[in-house]
Each structure stands twice: as structure tokens, then as C-alpha cells.
Amino acid sequence: MPERRGLRRLSALVVALWCVGFAGDRLSDWINATEIPLLVHATSPEVRDRNGDLLRAYTIDDGRWRMTVTPDQVDPLFYRMLIAYEDKRFFTHNGVDLQAAARAVAQGLRHGRVVSGASTLTMQVARLLEDGTTGQWQGKVRQMRLALALEKRLTKDEILALYTLLAPYGGNVEGLRAASLIWLGKEPRRLTPAEAALLVALPQAPESRRPDRHPEAAREARNRVMVRMAEAGVIPMSAARSDALDPSPRGRFPMPQLAPHMADRAVAEAPGRHDLTLDADLQRSLEDLARRHMARLDPRLSMAIVLADHESGEVLASVGSPDYAGTLNQGFVDMTTAQRSPGSTLKPLVYALAFDRGLAHPETLILDTPVHFGTYAPQNFDGEYRGELTVRRALQLSLNIPVVRLTEALGPAHLMAALQGAGLKPALQGGTPGLALSLGGVGLTLEEMVQLYAALAHGGEARPLRWKASTAEEATPRRLVSRASAWQVGHILAGITPPSAAGPKGRIAWKTGTSYGHRDAWALGWDGRYIAGVWIGRPDGTPVPGAFGAGLAAPVLFEALGRVSARPVPLPAPPPETLMISNAQLPANLQRFGPRAETVALQVTFPPDGATLAVSPSGVPLKLRGGTPPYTVLADGAVLATGLRRPELLAPISGPGFTTLSVIDARGQSGRTTIELR
Question: What are the coiled-coil residue ranges (predicted)?
Fold first, then answer.
């Protein structure tokens, strides 16, 4: 039966040759009247990095992989093998190789079976364009007619391009580039003889030679191609023999899946190819960092990382979650673009604005004492007060009360205007910004926070982050704060002790933040060129008890910056206009922030004077209001404790009787109460 089918095909071929050879003057009209199928085909959307490397690709609508490919993307060895094996007179015939056809007919008649084929590469392209059959003579004539028409309208290179785009490679794989990525796990730019031979052999029988289902058949077909190529002088016989020992691929390689969230964002805007500013190697490294760091934490937690070049504003890596396919941590949610409370990470902007407007200097003294702004009484994270200290130290300790004092002087509306001026879109719960704005009372994304910090890193100039390489023009930078103010804030933040094993101080300016209820842990920082931001939390906003930016996010920040550059790029020198003097040398209005009369008198609010309390082995609870810590506690003139900083404390008195308790603060103010213990 197979022999008979072969002879029928040969008979069909003879008839076809007669049509082509004896059509006379009408041949040209017949060819010109050929209806050419659609030559433009849908291809897989692709997202590539700044160097043209593939980050991610998508199947076309019907689920097939079909990827654009250009000659410069293909090893020339493949083309030499393809033409030598399939159609050695490709560049000289007009679509139908009459010499090969005659030889095939003669051999078939002599042997009673098909010995060699006569289908040219152009005829194969014709069959692929029409998805036609080859077993009927009508189909063969149609392919020959279309092949002749294609040769008149297309160049040889264009015909080869159609073949490399449409050739079947088994399953849902079409075209050379998709086949190389899926069956070889690599782009076809550099191929070994064995790899090129496999890609030549598979389209002849794509299903029966699929490497994932029939690896031995694929290997045998590949080796036959190599032997033929060695006999034809395309490759050395030694290469054919040595490569023939290599195993054939036995499965599919996964398509690259780097930067899936950002790739989704790009493809959602438009189909086709997208070139991003990302660096594939760095992106891969930071995705690995996120997975490794989060593997030991609660699986419901997610992480996001953004790393950019603050000189150009280009995003070099963007990790939306540690596991794109994760369900417990909602890995499909891109947390680089999710609005969250930034916690204390807004404080550097407040200080920079205060420096810019002459309200303070890094060496200005500011009070960290209890204070009320109407009904709002901010508290420090640890519940303690440090009394009077420098603005520099207040920022390094991330104290809440000093930054709220500065926010009140600036005006929350001006802080909101600065955020908007930096190109951010802050989201407020209410309509009017309040003093809690500087403590994270606003919704911002990780991308926006990196953009804000990039402005501080780049001398106070704000510009949008760019993640598309095709962006025609860079936006004109906006002056957010002066160069001197931006440098002063960076210099202060560089003085914070890094996490253990992260290197000495002064190399990276960085700040952490923790939102209310421990919902979000943040860390942002920069060196002389690169800026990075890290967010960790639950996408659904559920509190994460014990989560702090310093403990969770900061180590990742330093490691991320370490992966973009082996050594941090040095931070810049101060601009010449920077005022670098001691507190004593400052103008009088900058030596202390706010009037001295702002200090609230020290009071003992509990126990009230004359109160009677039961004796307790733990001591007498004291509650204070006002004053400047640290506090000293005395009982009937005898010192009980010193260096106390909290407004709530225990006086170690356990005996019965009348006792006068006195408290003295750092400014010498005192408060007292007389009680009876029973």
C-alpha cells in the first residue's frame, strides 16, 4: 500500500509537470492570476530587555507558539544545512525544480516506490500558506502554481523568512525560533551541528519526531541529516560522528518568564514586541533573591522590588511578587503598583523641605517630648521620648514627634503638593491632608516611592521612572528640593548603621518604614548611581505582627544594591553651597526649632496628690505629662531611678506609709505627688 500511494503521488507529479511545461504562452498569465494567501501572520507577543534578550513571550490566540525571526537571529549553519538538505538549487530555480522532479519520477518508476522528493522550499511554503495536502495531484498542482507566483512576487530571503516562521515543529510549536527555544532551550543565534540538524529534520515529520514524545526518532532523523551534510561538505565528517553521540532533547524547555508583571503591563497596552529598560540578568538575580528570602517566611506574605538608575530614571529590574503563580500570597498581584501606606519612608522628604525653607538644619536642636496638636498627640514607635536632640539624630532614629512638628510648620498641604510635584499620585482616605501624612497617612506605590527617593538621590530633581526603552523623550526634571537639601538628607541617611554584614556606614543612604498595624515593611536606599526599594507584606492588607522594615526589608535592599554593582558607587560630594557648620555656628533662629516656651511643664498625672494605694510588690505606677526626658525619680528625697525615658514607669516602693514622689526632667523641671500606701 505505501508503494502504491507513492506511485500515485509520482503520477500526480508527472501531470503537474506536464501542466507547467506545456502551458505555452498562457503560463505567465496563469501564474500572475494566482491568488496569494495572506502573507502576514500573527506572532507571539514578546517582551525583551535593554539588550534585546527575551524576558517573556506569549502564545498567539489559538495557543500556538509562533515567534518572529530575522536572519541575524539565526546561525548561518542552519540555512546552509536547510538548503543543502531540502532544496540545494533553491537560489536558482523559479519555485519548481524541474530537474529534481524529473529525477524523482525516474527513480520512482525504476524502483516502484518514492526514493526522493521534488518539493522545493518554495512549494513547502505554499503548502504552509494554504495548509494544503500533498497526496492529491490537484493539491500538488496548486502548490506548484502558488510557488511560481511566490517566486515572482517575493525575494528568496522573504521566502526563507516565511519558512522559518511557519514550519511545523510538533505540537503547538511553529517556526524556527519557537522550536529552538522550546526544544533546545536557547535562541537559534548559535547552534551546534547537531542542533541545526535537528531543526532541519523536525518539520519533515513534526509529530512522529517530537523530542518530548519520540526522542529516539528525533535523534535518528537528526543523525541522518548530519551524515548527509557531511557527505555534502557542509560540516566535517568528524563533527557529524561526534555530535551523533549526543542525546536528543527529551522534553520541552519552558519559555522565559522573567518580569511577568511588567511584561503583562506592556502587552496589555498593545500587542507585538516591547523593548523594556530592564536588564535580564539583573531581573533574574532579583527574582531569585525574592524567592530565596521569602521561602523562610509566612507563605501568605509577598514581596516587591524595584531597582533603577537614578541618573537616567530607567528601571533596571522590577519584581512584582516572589511567585507569579502563587495562590496563598496572591502572586499574580503586582505589588510594585499597589497603593500602600509608606510608613516612615516619607520622613526624608519632610526634612528636605524643612531644610529648603529655612526651618531647620541638620544640626538644629528639636524637641522629642510629648506634644498635642489639638486632639492629635503623636507618639514615637517605641513609646519613649529623647528630649532635645539634633534634627540629624531625630531622622536617623526615625522619631515621629520631631517630624510631625516640622510637618505642622510646613503645612500638610505643602507636603502633599511636594508629593504631587514629584510626579506621584498620593491617595488620601479623607479629603484634606493632616499631620499624620508624614507618618505614612497616604497611599503610595513602591514605584512612586522609588521615584521620590530617586529625586533625593539625584540632587533634588524629580523625573518619572522609565521602563519602556521606546520612550521618545525624557521628561524635563522638576526641582523638588535644592541640591544642598537633597545632599544633606542623603548624608544623614548614610550615617545609619547598615544591617549586619552589609558593610560600613556611609556607602548607602537608606531608610526603612513600617506602616500602622505592621501591614507594610519598607526599605529604600541609594548609592551614587542606583536606587532600590523593597516592600514586604500581605497583598490583602492583613497585619503582619512583628514585621518591621528594618528587620524584614532592609537586608533585601542591601543585597539588591549589591547585585547591581559589586561595590556601591560612591555617594556624591556636597554641593559647594551646602552649609556644613556646628550648632553653635548656626544663626540664632536655626539653633533650635520652635520657641523655648513650647516646652510643656512637667506634671505627675498619676497617682493624684493625696491618693491612697494598696501596697504592691511591683512598685507604684507613675504617669507623667510634659517635661523633657530623661527623668529622675525620687522618694522622700532619695534617688530611686535615673535615665528613664518613658512617660509611664514604676517607682520601686513596696513599704506602707506616706511617701512623697518627685520626678525631675532633663531641664530641671519637677513634679511631685504625696501618697499613702496601705
Answer: none
